[in-house]
């Protein structure tokens, strides 16, 4: 069960199957996660927040099971957690902006606190950098929705 969760129900294994490498699997998992994240928005931001908290907790546990391998590219539940965080309480347009900022922050590790979060031990570090990157994405999404009037 831990491998199923860590790969976010197989999303982390898709690119290996077709290209022979796992690189880019986090983005695949994030894109797949956008669908339920946005659908949960219909139930309200509290449902989205609850999903983000649950997936984050599951990510710490499941990715921690494989942390002896570093941060394997096929372990993508952390990207699912970050995607849920980046979309809390915003409409589709802002959520897409939030997702892009989240992925840039996660991939580059150049946004404040992202690389520090990644340095935490085990599953906490594997997950924390994505949650922090997701918070950067959420900030961008809220700006897009509130200040720019996108929604």
Task: Please tell me what the overall shape is.
Answer: globular
Question: How big is the Rg?
Answer: 14 Å
Largest sheet: none
Terminal residue distance: 37 Å
Mean pLDDT across all amino acids: 95
Q: What's the total number of strands?
A: 0
Return the string of H and E elements: HHHHHHHH
Please give the count of helices.
Answer: 8
- Strand content is under 5%
What is the topology?
Layout: H1 2-6, H2 14-19, H3 25-40, H4 45-64, H5 77-86, H6 92-108, H7 114-118, H8 122-146
Task: Provide keyphrases for this structure.
about 150 residues; 8 helices
What can you tell me about this protein's structure?
By secondary structure, the chain is mostly helical. Helices cover 69% and strands 0% of the residues. The chain has eight helices and no strands. The chain is globular. The mean pLDDT is 95.
In short:
With 151 residues, this protein is mainly α. 69% of the residues lie in helices and 0% in strands. It contains eight helices and no strands.
